[in-house]
Every structure is written in C-alpha cells, then in structure tokens.
Amino acid sequence: MTSHDDTAGRPPEPYDLIGVGIGPFNLSLAALADRAETVSALFLDARPEFRWHPGMLVDGARMQVPFLADLVTLVDPTNPWSFLNYLRDQQRLFPFYFGERFQLPRREYDHYCRWAADRLPNCRFGSPVTAVHWDAEERLYLVHAAGAVHRARHLVLGTGTEPVRPAAFAPLSRHPAVLHSADYLTRRRALDAARDVTVVGSGQSGAEVFLDLLRHRAGDGTRLRWLTRTRAIAPMEYSKLGLEQFTPDYTRYFHGLPADVRDALVPAQWQLHKAASAETLAEIHDHLYERTVGRPIDAEPVEILPGTAVTEAAQGPGGLELHCRHGDSGRRHLVRTDAVVLATGYRAVRPAALDPIADLIDWDEQGRYRVDLDHRVATRPELTGGLYVQNAELHTHGVGTPDLGLGAHRAAVILNAVAGKTLHPLPHRTAWTTFLPPSAPAFAPPAAPGPAPQPAVLPRPQEGTERAAASR
C-alpha cells in the first residue's frame, strides 16, 4: 500500500478513498479495505472514540439481526475483523457457543465495533471534517480535518443519521424533561422526579424504553404511558421469506422502481424496519401480567394507547400538555404528563462539510441524493471523483439501507467500484423470492397453415428424467 507521509517536501500521495464518519457502515468498509493492498484508505471521525447508540444500551437489549451481520462475515468469513475472531480474542468463544443465541446483546455489538475501531490502522478519531473541496485540476477531493488537508480520489459519506423530533414538540425543544431516546440512558436520571412519564413511538426504541421504565419504576406509583401513531402495537416482520426484503436482490428490484413508487412504498413497509421485535413486546406483556397477579388488570398505572398522534405539545400550568387525536375515532383528548421520551426515529442529513461542493451534486426534486446501484451519488460532469453514501439512500435503495445485515455487502460493492475490479466476489442471487415477474413476451402473429402435426412420441420415464437433467 502506498505511503502517505510527506517525504523530502513532496506532497503525500492521495488516498484512493477517504471515509467521512466512522459508524458501523464505514467501519465495515474500513475493515474490508484493511486487507485490500491495492486500495489506500483513511477514515475520519470527529468523536474521540467509536460509540454506537450509547443512549440505548439498556440492560437486556439485543440486536435485531444475527451475529453474522457483523462488519465483514457476509462478504468475507475469513476476515480477521469478524465477530467470531473478536470472541476468540476476548476468550469468549465457549460462553458464546453455549449461549446458543443468534442475536447479540447490544452492548456486546458496541464493544465488538470499538474493538475493531481501536485496532484498525486506517481509522482516525478526533478528526472532525470541516470542509470538502474539489480540485478540478488535480481531480482530487481536498478534505479539511483537524488542521490538515487530505487528498483523495474518492469520498464515502458515512456520517450517520440524526434524531427526529416531531414538529408538534418544537415548542419543547429545550425542555429538560423532553428527551429523545438517543439520549435515554445518559439522561434517565432527569426522569427520576417525574411521576407521570410518556413514551412516544412504536418502534424498537420505544418498546425498549417503555420496558426499561416498567422495570425501574415498578411499585413507585409512577404512571407510565406509551403513545403510538400506528393503529396497533405490531411486531416487526421476522418470517424467513419476509426477511428476503433485506437482500441485495430486493435492493436491486427497489432501485429499479419509479421514484414515486419508491416514495410511497417505504412508509407502507413500516413493519419491516420501524416496528418492535416480538420478543420485546412479549417481555412487556409478561412483565405487566406478573405485576397484576391477584389484582385487577387496571390496577397498575400503565396506559398503552395505539393509533394516537400528538398534534400539539406545550408547557402547561401543571406540567407538559399533549394534545392528542385518536386516528380511527377522531376523538381528541389532553394528556398531562411530567416527562416525555421521544422514540421517534432518525433521518439522514447532509453534512455541512459538503457545502463547498453542493453545487456540483445532482440533487433530485426533493433535494436528495440521486444514488446508483453502486451507491455512487450523481454529480455534475466536472466532478469526476466518486462520491458514495452509506445509510443516506433509503429513498433509492429501500428498507435494507439502515439494516446491518446489508452493511458488509454495500461496503464490498463500494470497495469494488473504487478499486475498478472485483476485490470481493458477490453472489448473483440471494433470495428465493422473485420480486419482479418476467416481462410479457412480445405478441407474435399466428403461424401460417402448414402440414398437420404428427402425434408426439412420449419418452419413457427414464428418458424424461435424463433430458430434464441435461437441460438444467
């Protein structure tokens, strides 16, 4: 791999690839690039160290994907940055083996990623990228970070997503008792004085926060409330064939759909990527069941209200006031509460560092990236360097975009594209499901009359078997 040290006053060789942000997806790319001798890479992050959703590493929380969805295994099982090699390094292979669990504790996944990030030589933390420029003469990106300027032929954005706060809660954006689930663990003590706590959001984060509050506030008289806009507390789709919508096959199908169809499809698929796991929902039910043994079902100060949207939120004389509307009945009611946890998800945002080259990017009608199947962003002709994105292409690549199970595959696609050759062979077919039916055959006019057909000579059974085998 080429050295990038400044030798004898000469400018260092440009990197083939610079990654901006080091979350799980760019960390996966860093792990794969570490073994690619023909690709030089550097990954930069503003944080002092790797952390993965630290506010949601609650006790008992598990991943929603199998451990095989690590940084590298689904592309290169022999890679030293695999989860199994991490277990070997940590002397935990036998405990993991006897645990017989495919899904990891969230805290272990976070620790595994930190193990890799601390050891990968191409990852640099404490290096905030402040600006990205394009040098048209040299045909290179100029990446400004921590007082240095790094040059690269290609750029990969892996800056992650930011918490979403619904517009109704804008008046409470600075209220100390209104927090996003992203900050739940770090600010949980701020809820201790609250005697009425409301969780908003029906996804996995909302379910985990509600369950954690049930466990930690049991018996102290605190009223706990769970509001969701969805009509039912429904589990995430986890059937084996249903999960095939998280395959490269489905990604290719989704990418080929018209933009308006894609935009309508993503919200309709909420149960694929925004619902809670059946296991977490079962734990909530079991906990409530045990708490009410020998007592009426409504003895506990607990409310679960699906199909309910918060239309307005404000500070009232006696606490927070949430104006709610029930979707099916249209009935409106007022909820008074002391604290709110917003488990309302995340969205991709454009990093400010891109502002110097924003005019060179070919945005779509809604100001989003246009992204091809290789995850390369469409740009103006004068910007010839590849600009790639990770987890910012939900609108072009579908519900698998934020899924960790597709992370290694996407990283390999990008690495192959940057290298200009196949560093990692990828499977052509990954699902039993055929998502797009074959095109109808072209209309053919009826054949002209000819001699009467002769009776078909049917083969003996063994002949049929041999001919069928020969045609496969």
Description of the molecule:
The chain is an alpha/beta fold and about 475 residues long. It has 13 helices and 19 strands. It has helices at about 25-35, 85-90, 95-100, 105-120, 185, 205-215, 250-255, 260-270, 270-275, 280-290, 395, 405-420, 460-470; strands spanning about 15-20, 40-45, 60-65, 105, 125, 130-135, 140-145, 150-155, 160-165, 180, 195-200, 225, 300-305, 310-315, 320-325, 330-335, 340, 345-350, 385-390. Strands 1, 2, 5, 6, 7, 8 and 19 form a 7-stranded mixed sheet that branches. Helix 6 runs parallel beside helix 10. The longest helix is centred in the N-terminal third of the chain and has 14 residues, at about 105-120. It is globular and about 75 Å long. Mean pLDDT is about 90; it is low at about 455-470.
Question: Which secondary-structure class do the elements indicate?
Answer: alpha/beta
What is the averaged pLDDT score?
91
Cα-based radius of gyration, to the nearest Å: 27 Å
Helix content: 25-40%
Based on DSSP secondary structure assignment, what is the total number of beta strands?
A: 19
Helix segment tally: 13
Instruction: Report the β-strand fraction as a percent range.
Output: 15-25%
Distance between the termini: 44 Å
Largest sheet: 7 strands, mixed
- The dominant shape is globular
* Low-confidence region ranges: 453-472
What's the layout of helices and strands?
Layout: E1 15-20, H1 24-33, E2 41-44, E3 62-66, H2 83-90, H3 93-99, E4 103-105, H4 106-119, E5 123-124, E6 129-135, E7 140-145, E8 148-157, E9 161-163, E10 178-180, H5 184-187, E11 196-200, H6 204-216, E12 223-227, H7 248-255, H8 259-268, H9 270-273, H10 278-291, E13 302-305, E14 308-316, E15 319-326, E16 332-337, E17 339-342, E18 346-348, E19 387-389, H11 394-397, H12 407-419, H13 461-471
Parallel strand pairs: 1-2, 1-8, 2-5, 8-19, 10-17, 11-12, 11-17, 12-13
Antiparallel strand pairs: 3-4, 6-7, 7-8, 9-18, 14-15, 15-16
Helix pairs in contact: 1-12, 6-10
